[in-house]
Amino acid sequence: MSFSDPARYDRFMGRWSRCLAPQFIRFSGIGDGQRVLDVGCGTGSLARALLATGKEVRVDGVDPVEAFVEYARHAASNDERAVFRASPAETLPYDDKTFDAALALLVLQELADPVQAVREMARVTREGGRIAACQWDFVDGMPMLSLFWRAAEMVAPAKVAARRAKTPSRRVNGPGDLAEVWRQAGLADVATTILEIPMRFCSFEDYWRPFRAGATPTTDFAETINSETEGKLERTLRGLITDIEPDGSFVLRAQAWAVAGCARHARASAA
Ligand SMILES: C[S@@+](CC[C@H](N)C(=O)[O-])C[C@H]1O[C@@H](n2cnc3c(N)ncnc32)[C@H](O)[C@@H]1O
Description:
By secondary structure, the protein is of the alpha/beta class. It has helices spanning 6-28, 45-51, 66-75, 114-123, 143-155, 157-166, 175-184, 204-208, 217-228, 232-240, and strands at 35-39, 58-63, 82-86, 99-105, 125-136, 188-201, 250-262. The site of S-adenosylmethionine has 22 residues, from helix 1 and helix 2.
């Protein structure tokens, strides 16, 4: 997936990263005084949540997209405990064992070779330091998107089928697959869990407006299909939302798979 605009991405999906980040940090077991790497930092939701834990952490955020790095730096109000720089996960610009922990929030699904990225995260983390990641359960745990796709299928089935045919199949389809990536990368004490957040929308507009913001290929698709069907996509999607409160608000529960393990470095053999 490519992301074109950090502010729009933040309104569409980044707002939910912010909700998920504190749970992910607790699962990752970040301790006081640690220096933590935030891989694929995007708009910096995880970095800011780390700074807000009250623990004396320092954070280095990396992302290959310069616009995200700039956004994250600005959003952290130039907090001197956080630094951001442009880099892909697969080749990190740090010495071995620089960090106490390396985390990736909702990034692995973007990577062609997640095992290589996780090995690299382990390389820059001290012996025994935690390497953790999580990603949305796009299979069964993301009604915010699955409702949209159901509506799109109802109004433009051929377009949805054509798009699906062009979309590469997902490499990670459950916590077991994530654990397998961690083991292949040589990590010890691998554990997984499922994290859950309520996505609270104050109105249908609050839910739908970000789909029209053009932040990602999904939102570009939404905008195209909605205008081609003269608003039928929006009306259909509105009809699929249930359990709406009298004030128009509603909640969609979202789940993410999380995995953590410990870095293990080969010992230098005795001469
Ligand atoms: C879904 S966003 C998540 C961003 C952020 N972690 C969050 O939770 O809001 C995925 C991020 O992965 C970044 N990304 C894409 N390819 C990457 C790579 N090879 N290495 C590191 N990050 C990558 C994107 O630029 C984007 O910021």
